[in-house]
Predict the 3D structure of the following.
Amino acid sequence: MWTFFHKLGSPPWMYRISGQILAVLLPLTLLLLAGGAVWALFYAPADFRQGNSFRILYFHVPAAVVSLAAYYVMAIAGAISLIWRMKMAEVAMKCTAPVGATLTFLGLVTGALWGKPTWGTFWVWDAKLTAYLVLFFLYMGVIALYQAYENKEAAAKACAVLSLVGMVNIPIIYKAVDWWYSLHQPATIKFTEESTMHSSMLQPLLLMFVAYYCLFACALLLNMRTELLRRGRGTQWVRRIVEEGADAGRNGGMRAV
Amino acid sequence: MPGLLEVVLASIRRQLVLAVRRPSDTLSPLLFFLVTIALFPLGIGPDPQQLAVFAPGILWIVALLAALMAAEGMFLSDYEDGSLEQLLLAPVSLYMTALASVFSHWLLTGLPLTLLSPVFATMLQLPTGALPVLVLSMLLGTALLSLVGSIGAALTVSLRRGGLLISLIIVPLYVPVLIFATAAVQAAAEGFDASSQLFLLGGMLALAVALAPFAIAAGLRISVDAG
């Protein structure tokens, strides 16, 4: 088990294994997304009050949930990199930030689009929405701080500290609908009691959750691979990959992912 | 070798002496507070009733901006003249010295702002009944702003364009303070009980006093190593 843990810190091994994972995960993600979208848009029953506009839910809720989970991934990776000085955790933290920011942006946009037909407005300054906007700012702060440092080793450490400090806000965002009166509805999916959502609507949503988590994992791994190559430029293993790629290009074949 | 308490007291005394010798550093956030407050009646009209409605928000947003401005230069001169490095090398816990510099920073920025806030609130027609709650919320809130702002200052002190960056990384963390503090003042202005919001601010302050020095110390170490 420890050898696996040690291998995790090795860039060439990580690069190779992430390529193998992606070869399976990427097609699977596309399949899940396509399947979930078709199920949600065409086969799930229309809502009794909101009609068809509620279908945005299938794209909004998973984006929102995964963007919050991504913050935890970023902060935990940051903590690991600070405590155990693991380079791979640093790479993971740095690469999660843009993915999380994009998902948060997607959550904001889909939320606005859903808000217009149901609440009559694209945006309200209510607790849940404001807290979620703050999440977007938190991601932006981490990205900007990383960019600002020229010394990338210091940048990663500074970002790890900042993302850990920002963790304080995450439970507030998560619980905003329960703590304040809010236009945004409280959670309908519950783990401890029965969900207040009919199973015919719930099943496609659960599928979309899986699809979004897979999408997050794919984007993170792709990002990490790029970062690994960038960091390892000038090392033997990267040069070998470039040469292999060039050979494959000359032979007219496609380079395996 | 001096004990921990002596070091903490010496570092507070040093900051205060520095502030007395360079009074403009301490006065400019206060003047900024005054000038910006004066802008609002010009911008949204001098109608007393309208001003009274906006007063809690205006006071707190301007206090937040003043705190942001003050946080920017917090460790800068210490970083440039090398005394920050000495602080890191000193054989006392950086946690305590970081807490001491936050405390002296608050004495020079947050406390004057708190003491002056009733004057500005009266200028903005805030009902007199809300003044005690305003002062209390300022007392707790500015201390929170100082603690959180110091984290941003510590992380960005080695960067050339730290000023713009600090607002980007710190403002999201200021948001909870702004929400609860204005809610407290608003409740008091409308004649309701504001104790729950004040208790929340107090709880947040207790958390920040305990945890923020860790982040400040880590940030200072990273900045000095990077520079």
Observations:
- The interface with chain A takes residues 151, 155-156, 158-159, 161-162, 165, 168-173, 175-176, 207, 215, 218-219, 222-223, 225-226 of chain B (CB under 8 Å).
- Chain B has ten helices and no strands.
- Residues 195-226 of chain B form the longest helix (32 residues).
